[in-house]
Amino acid sequence: MSLLSVVTLLLACGFLGSLAKQVDRNSTQVEYHSDHKYVHNRITNQTFVLYQRDTPKPQPASPRDLFFEVPLNGIGVKSLSALPFIEMFGLRDRIAYVGWAHSAPSSCIQRLYRDRKISSFPQDFLYSMNTVGDYPTFDESSFEEKTIQTQRSEDSDVQESAEWLRFYATFFNLEEKAAVIARDMMHNYHCIKERAATNAKYPKPVIAWTGVFERNGETYIEISMTPYKVNLTTDAGATMIDIDSIHATQKNNSRTTYGYAAVDLQRMAEGSLSFTDMEPTDVYHPERTASLFAYKIADAREVLKDVDILIDETSHDLGRFGRLTFGRSLTAENVLNFYRLNESDTQLNFIKNKAIFREDRSSGWGTYATAMPDAALEDVVNMVHPGFNQFHWMRNVYSDQEVIGVRSTSCEDPEAKLANPATICHEPNGFVIGSPRQLPLQ
């Protein structure tokens, strides 16, 4: 039995007394006492004192400590990055409100909203004003008293994404369950990785995660190098586009480089992103930790000349592009138009080989794929090795696959745990896989 299992069992039985036991993960440190636990999130630099219901409130170790009675019975989920973890525990019934619930990429959340069992923020503004303050709320940006700060999982690597599952579990006394889910998920991830490695291609195909956005009257192509995408790409047997090489060859061309922490394309499209360490500049700083790089659209052919597989992340409702295509699947022609390219640009391998993908086969890549890295890896492996398995979120824009919309009527049981769509992986033995089976959440 693991240390975490022992600590959880003793804690439940009240046998720890005043002796503290520590469980130290990469991003979260938990210190257990008889009737409370200290949880320190190194990423957000927050410390929580979680004490059992019907027990005295402990003394704070620091004025900045945040106190919560656990398990939490009612919560708000303002940032969707927290949503899949709550759903994986089967705790939708604890949710009082969800940010933009009416359009959340979860059929069961939409059904609960339709049935008026949860509220949406900010649509139900008056209701939210009266109730939000009563609930501990998971949010990425707020620093209010009852806010449990989170982070977009894409900004973490694959292992850290699994650690977020353990972090959320501490607020519901579900650490042991989280450990089992994370263990099985990461075992499945590494099995898929090994199977891809047994069929590696050489040279490795080059993947670019890109999007197009407009800002201040200019159109840019953006390349994303977030840790999560780097992990998925390399573990699928491919390699990321060489940013250093692009800068070396583009030094005399017009370009813009952003050196800031990862910000999603939707916020860029809305013009609401904020730069954390530098304004747009023509000076490349390789020593800075940057995960997004933007170039003027006129340089698209040169920037993408070595790319074998293009993953387009352009916002579906981006300005003039979206008005032409909203409500239906984007075609290869639509996507190429974003980049000012066309089918005749066959010097580009991703056009010649019809290898352009979007994350829109079904909704929720940005919310759910980061919480289920094994399923996400399957999608990327399927691009590198066509036919490896079925796609979950990705879609080849040259195919006739339609976008699968999220509808409240698709939810059969709102109280059921969120199922992981990943196929249960077996030891490397080629790419022959039987009927896909969902990985059970213990």
From TrEMBL:
Source species, domain of life: Eukaryota
Record keywords, A-Z: Signal
Keyword Signal found: yes
Signal sequence, start to end: 1-20
Protein's name according to its UniProt entry: Uncharacterized protein
Organism whose genome encodes this protein: Basidiobolus meristosporus CBS 931.73
